[in-house]
Amino acid sequence: MTPSAFRSGLLASALLAALAGPAGAGTETGFAFLELPAGARVAAMGGAGATLAEGPAALYWNPAGIAPAVPAAGSHGRAIFDHHESIQTFRQELVGGVLEKEGDGLGLALNAHYTEGIDERDALGNLLGTFGATDFAVVFGMAKTASPGLRLGGALQWTHEDLASVGASAFGLSAGLLWDPVSVEGLRIGASFRNIGPSPSFKAVDGSDGADVPQPTTFEAGASFGNAGSFSWRAAADVVKLKGDSMEGRLGLEIKPIPTLALRAGWMTGQDAADLTAGAGIAVGRFDIDYAFVPYKDDLGTSHRFGLTARL
User: Fold this and answer.
1) Which whole-number Å values give the CA distances from 212 to 13, 24, 147, 203, in the listed order?
2) Which domain range does residue 145 map to?
3) Per the structure, how many domains does the chain have?
4) Where residue 33 falls among pLDDT bands split at 50, 70, 90?
5) Of 77, 125, 128, 200, which has the fewest Cβ atoms less than 10 A away?
6) Sequence-distant contacts of 155-158: CB under 8 A, at least 24 apart
7) Cβ partners under 8 Å of residue 14, min gap 6
8) How far is Cα 291 from Cα 146, in angstroms, rounded to an integer?
9) Helix ranges restricted to H, the chain
């Protein structure tokens, strides 16, 4: 690997980090793709995932969400496939499944982020070839209904990041809770700690060990409120704190004028690259089809995300 390729790889990673969120002074975290939304529904609602994420996508937001909000007799499952077309050549895929049994849940998912070929050039601008950047996180989680309205969950994650053939891997832990107080119908409160683990290091260009790169340890907490019925809605508000960074806010709103159609919008505070989000969802039998888009600032383009969830 040439120094120019390594520098280009770091540039790609820096661009990804800028899209995920602004870094505070002195903040240098790896695995920036873990800060990107997982799942089209939450992405359309401003990334307010502390209480909104459910099914396999919840493994990357709040693992308590893989347990069903309304326990049902017998075993049930959910499977998800989510494709994200981001700016330039950035792409993201999310696939996973959850098995629900009464009030408990088991889940497994893969979140992959990658680029198409990026030109590698020398100091004079001559084309030397192409390289890519690949990131992925495999996560296994468990959640349990501890008492009526209270769900607790945890997850173990293995993450790998490869920039221009230079890679680093690490294990991480996440934990979360969801509480639907029986005294206030429609209210849900949630909180999660994500990406807790050791700091791996990338190899430097000369082959020596580079500096340790912390994982993006994140705390997110929030509340949502809504109603169910032929015309339903849910509004959510979260606060997000990345270790070493300033506090950010997430707002989301979902309206279902009919049970099979969802209209969504959101707003992100503390972001430099984007703030507005929007999307929609359609329910067709056992399938939910979701779409989200995020218009980036500074002529960076628009992010499009498509999701398919099957209830088994």
Assistant:
1) 16, 18, 41, 10
2) 3-311
3) 1
4) confident
5) 125
6) 155/59, 155/63, 155/107, 157/195, 157/197
7) none
8) 33
9) 3-20, 40-44, 49-52
Instruction: State the DSSP code for 117.
Output: -
Give 68 or 115, the one with higher predicted confidence: 68
Give pLDDT tens digits for 219-232.
999 999 999 888 99
pLDDT for residue 7 = 43
Q: How far apart are CA 43 and CA 49, in angstroms?
A: 8
In 3D space, the residue among 233, 190, 227, 244 whose CA is nearest the CA of residue 48 turns out to be 190
Using CA of residue 186, residue 276, residue 90, residue 195, what is the dihedral sign? Answer: negative
Please enumerate, as own/partner, the contacts of 120-128 that have beta carbons within 8 Å and a separation of 24 or more: 120/2, 120/4, 120/5, 120/8, 120/164, 121/4, 122/2, 122/4, 123/4, 128/2, 128/4, 128/5
Residues in the chain: 312
Taking the CA atoms of residue 198, residue 29, residue 92 and residue 81 in that order, the dihedral angle to the nearest 10 degrees is 40
As separate numbers, helices (DSSP H) first and strands (DSSP E) second, the chain gives 3, 18
Cβ–Cβ < 8 Å for 57, 139 = no
Q: Which two tokens stand for residue 276?
A: 């507005």
Q: What is the CATH number of the domain that holds 209?
A: 2.40.160.60
